[in-house]
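Q: My labmate handed me this sequence with no annotations at all. I'd like to see what the chain might look like in three dimensions before we decide whether it's worth expressing. Could you predict it?
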Amino acid sequence: MVVSKEKDEALVGHFTILAEPNPGYNKKVILKGLDSEKKYLVNDEFEAYGDELMSVGIVFPQPERYFSKDSETQDFKSRIFKLKEIK
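A: Here is what I predict for the chain of 87 residues:
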């Protein structure tokens, strides 16, 4: 995770080397170093405050099918999240 000095932008990477055979619910990434008072737009998809992202994190949706071709549970998957402050 990389956060700008002004804490108005951040880049977060999540990388999976090998998929888990029985993944649990609510996989997430807890962020650090954000401004708890600022509101961020995450990947142009949803908005969240810094304190929420640093305590709850970015929660990944539960896949409908495991180990299918398009599933998020495949080996060597990666996700990049771009956060930008909403002013």
